[in-house]
Amino acid sequence: MNKERKTGRMDDMKIYQSAYVLELARGSSYIASTLTPATLRAAIVEACREFREQYGADKVHIFRELLARSLEKRDNRKAAAVVRSFDLL
User: Fold this and answer.
1) What is the pLDDT of residue 81?
2) How is the chain split into domains, by residue range?
């Protein structure tokens, strides 16, 4: 991958992060507060469903990655890994 292409993708992610800041804050807070695997899954489903309803299915994969990054910033790597592996279909 050339450097220009990678830089462009990073810039795109920053734009999306700014656009979805409220949804990311709400979703990562909700997910981070879960106590069991079942509630973790339910929180991921709800956050992604609400996002899809508001912005459309074509942007959910971007939201999922940004949500995982947000969880990593909260030192919740386990939840971030679950979010990344979550099947959005």
Assistant:
1) 97
2) 3-85
